[in-house]
Design the sequence.
């Protein structure tokens, strides 16, 4: 019985670990443009150091954070095919 409990605990831990891995390992199809810089097949976090227009030409929504490093709160979700002007010291996460 102790062996079954140990096995179940190991499986549960593996399942939680799989869910904790961020989706940024998968690139979005299309491109992201931030202040004129184009990022094809973007994935991860991108800094917005100054006022810039962000174009989301990917196939997924991107998240706009209120601090650098994609650590702050999400202030806007930018759907595919749309653009928004983003103030500086913000960041954008894809995936």
Sequence:
């Amino acid at each position: 019985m102790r062996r079954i409990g140990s096995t179940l605990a190991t499986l549960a831990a593996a399942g939680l670990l799989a869910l904790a891995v961020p989706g940024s390992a998968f690139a979005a199809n299309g491109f992201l443009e931030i202040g004129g810089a184009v990022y094809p097949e973007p994935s991860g976090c991108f800094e917005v150091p100054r006022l810039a227009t962000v174009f989301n030409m990917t196939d997924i929504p991107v998240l706009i954070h209120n601090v650098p490093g994609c650590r702050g709160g999400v202030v806007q979700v930018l759907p595919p095919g749309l653009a928004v002007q983003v103030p500086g010291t913000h960041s954008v996460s894809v995936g």
Notes: The CA atoms of residues 4 and 10 lie 10 Å apart. The longest strand covers residues 52-58. The mean pLDDT is 82. Residues 2-20 form the longest helix (19 residues).
